Amino acid sequence: MLVFGTPRTAVFAHLDSIGFTVRYGRQLVRIGGPQVESGYRLVGHDAQGDVACTLAVDDETGELSYEFTRDIERGTELTFACDFRETADTVQSCYLDNRLGVWNALRLAETLEHGILVFSCWEEHGGGSVAYLAKHIYETYGVRQALISDITWVTEGVHAGQGVAISLRDSLIPRRSYVERIRQIAKAAGIPHQLEVEGGGGSDAKELQHSTQPWDWCFVGAPEDHVHSPDELVDKRDIASMLALYQVLMREL
Amino acid sequence: MLVFGTPRTAVFAHLDSIGFTVRYGRQLVRIGGPQVESGYRLVGHDAQGDVACTLAVDDETGELSYEFTRDIERGTELTFACDFRETADTVQSCYLDNRLGVWNALRLAETLEHGILVFSCWEEHGGGSVAYLAKHIYETYGVRQALISDITWVTEGVHAGQGVAISLRDSLIPRRSYVERIRQIAKAAGIPHQLEVEGGGGSDAKELQHSTQPWDWCFVGAPEDHVHSPDELVDKRDIASMLALYQVLMREL
Amino acid sequence: MLVFGTPRTAVFAHLDSIGFTVRYGRQLVRIGGPQVESGYRLVGHDAQGDVACTLAVDDETGELSYEFTRDIERGTELTFACDFRETADTVQSCYLDNRLGVWNALRLAETLEHGILVFSCWEEHGGGSVAYLAKHIYETYGVRQALISDITWVTEGVHAGQGVAISLRDSLIPRRSYVERIRQIAKAAGIPHQLEVEGGGGSDAKELQHSTQPWDWCFVGAPEDHVHSPDELVDKRDIASMLALYQVLMREL
User: Fold this and answer.
1) Does C168 sit within 8 Å of A21, measured CB to CB?
2) How many helices (H) and strands (E) in chain B?
3) CATH number belonging to domain C19-80
4) pTM of the model
5) Are A76 and A45 in contact (CB under 8 A)?
6) What is the pLDDT of residues B124-147, one digit of tens each?
7) How many other C-beta atoms can be found within 10 angstroms of the C-beta atom of residue B162?
8) ipTM for the complex?
9) Most exposed of A23, B46, C109, C150 (fewest Cβ within 10 Å)?
10) Which CATH entry fits the domain spanning C2-17+95-252: 1.10.260.40, 3.40.630.10, 3.30.499.10, 3.55.40.20?
């Protein structure tokens, strides 16, 4: 948690990644909700050394396992092997969700005068750190405005290259007056953005919505294609507008 | 939140309504769990003015959309059009859940000497205000007894016209000793009531049950037929016994 | 809640049981997730006296009801009839989950110098007491290390008789550094134990993981066969190693 000046707003960026835990035999169980496809390359580490194995999905049962030259120790965590690809217009890699949200927070730090940057954990797997961080922030600094620096989905209504998404709702519904203020600031600043409306999905905001403090929150993030796969793809224009919007919002909210 | 005298018990009545959010194209996503039927009349407001449209449900996919003379702006909230019907014995309208719970709290206010009336939000859509209101109440007033002023379901065990329902459980189970006290008070006062036992459903009590304070809670409310539709129907005798029971409970609990 | 000396770690053992609530007519609804089989003997008590009835499961619909000589009052709670069986090697009964976890905590109390023993409720049915107990413990004693004294499952990876299970994860994932410390202590002490990895299931730790305090937690408990039935079966060696491990952990954590 980084505190700058006299904060009015906190930015939440989660650090954790989706993946797999080694169970018994060659079984795997999910961490969060990764896409699965036979042949995905996975990496990890156990007491016998580094692991670079392959995901296998049973066609009939959907059960997950790994293929490797040796058994991997029970409880070992595996993540997608990183294959970072960059073009003039895009970046592509596993875990842009939420390395980009973290990158956005770090870039924001370069010029931030007033605000709090929060790096959270367990977002992909039921939550677990935002509840106590939010309580600490509210009780220590009186801050109850939040922005969720995370990555969302390219859909039929949110397109790559058309700007950062301001989410009007996902599985939860934020306070309308707060989201309206954000929309007005984005509009006045002339920053390209898109409005997102989803019936599902969630973020660190779940813990804020259910917290024992009266937080206002809004998810503001670039959209990606190939969500939760090793091939997450984001348009650089959306990354740029995400950072630009956060810079304005942290000044004006 | 209204505080009267030296409170021992808080009444929670939620203000929010089920409905729909306009997504992309003519798609709708649900707010809470509304009944859906093609032809239901919906109303709302966007920057272009008032909206009075019609719900359409795809027979094959169940997907929701609207029919209207123009496109409605993304993120606009739509609710059932109100068609209030009253007979000598009944009232019928959308949103008796929870306008009647709110009405009950307001009528209670006319004679209340000691107690707290809480008007909450997000009850229909995952919660979000009771957690911090409950913390504030407990820490400020030491109150940890709650009554949930909300509307329940007519079922094979709870019938219209036979009195307010005291719920022994829904998806959650309240502390038995507290519910027993309420049953004894209702019985001693000779107020018509019914005992409800459900395996599902929930209320503002979910946030109390999971709160960081040791709340006791009980759902006490009239039953309705045609739940979460534009045609919610309640027997006036059940409304009368609901108010009568709250008046006694707020004196004696 | 029992507090010994200068506590660093709290042990949570839940007191509540799975079972059934009498609904309308002869219907039953579940408390928690009991196994159901026609013929299971159930016991309870209502205003008319003791109840000893039989569970019936509809083959077609799965609906639950009871068979008894009279109607049982609405809202009555029924539990499995206890048939306690002991051999040289095993104990078998309903509710070893979590009578054994409670037994473990009570035996631990005989020699405990520093620590907190917490007896919780609603663990089997969505939780409801750990959130406020955890807050009280953290704010009063500064304790944020937890052990979950509960019973887990015999599976293809966790076998009866091979020692207490240390759970590396269930539906939730505890902080790895804390679980590693526990593994090291168990190994150094030479106490037989097994490592568990599950994708589902939960415990009192759910409320700790989502609490407004930064708790570390780990589930440490003997495995049982015939989970949530009247025939829960546990190997005495696993009970012995459970108690032995708790005694060491409460000294060394």
Assistant:
1) yes
2) 5, 18
3) 2.40.30.40
4) 0.96
5) yes
6) 999 999 999 999 999 999 999 999
7) 16
8) 0.95
9) C109
10) 3.40.630.10
